[in-house]
Amino acid sequence: MESIQLTTSSGKNICYRKSGAGPYLVLLHGFPEDNSLWDMVIPGIEQEFGLIIPDLPGAGKSDLQEDTSMESLAESIKQLLDHEQADTVVMAGHSMGGYVTMAFADLYPEYLKGYALVHSTATADTEEKKEIRRKAIALIQKGGKEPFVKGMIPNLFGDWFKAAHPEIIEKQIARSLLMSAESMISFYNCMINRPDRTNVLSDRELPVQWIIGKEDNVVPLQVALQQSGMSVVNFVEIYEHTGHMSMIERPERLAGDLRKFTRYCLNR
Ligand code: MLT
Asked: Is residue 218 within 6 Å of ligand 1 at its C-beta?
């Protein structure tokens, strides 16, 4: 895979990995992660499709933007795609990456043949969720990034996986701690401020794949299922004994499901 750095119109750098040729499958990671989140899924998809896998601005090696919003994140992905002359793609976004995907589908639907929401939702935060995020921001601002990350990461995994693979949870914690406190705060504010985009599911008339973990504490089964009927074409995949992190908990199945969906979108 090639590692590429691009300077966007704001003067900030965005970094991404690329393999193969278009039409591309674009993989967007969630919070507080970087593009290495997809490492275990890549071997199952790179033979069939070209891949573009960015570090979202503020994560991994990409610079944090001055005013981060879901729209500005989507805009920087658009600049990257323009640079690659990739005007026809399928996008898969994990959790926060799915919120960026929804903003992208809202603003730039002409680039998309379809998109996958991997443990994600088109809804806005509830008031309760916003309050939890504000408390987390206050903790991080007081220097509490480490307890915040150590508290949040284990909760992302299903019970079986957590018990069977404590070393992977530790690795994920160490990886998440690489994100700066400033980026974490900025991403949390941008999640608090994102609008409901359920209308985009039906208005854009694009196929949508729903990857749902039965033990997901962040996007519960019912929340994802309720929305899955709103798009014109749905692929719904429910994973047993899986939390919020199928790219680590069930990478082979996820690779197979993304392959099936991408093939469908590109051939329709
Ligand atoms: C993520 O995995 O991106 C986050 O858990 C999303 C969220 O907190 O809503």
From this structure: yes
Cα 112 from Cα 88, distance rounded (Å): 6
Q: What Rg do the C-alpha atoms of the chain give, in angstroms?
A: 17
Distance CA 180, CA 103 (A): 24
In angstroms, what is the span from residue 11 Cα to ligand 1's centroid?
A: 27
d(Cα 18, Cα 1) in Å, to the nearest integer? 6
- What distance in Å separates the CA atoms of residue 124 and residue 127, rounded to the nearest whole number? 9
* Cα 67 from Cα 152, distance rounded (Å): 25
| Orientation angle between helical segments 181-192 and 145-152, nearest 10 degrees | 60
| pLDDT tens digits along 134-177 | 999 999 999 999 999 999 999 999 999 999 999 999 999 999 99
Q: Is the CB of 56 under 6 A from ligand 1?
A: no
How far apart are the C-alpha atoms of 32 and 145, rounded to whole Å? 11
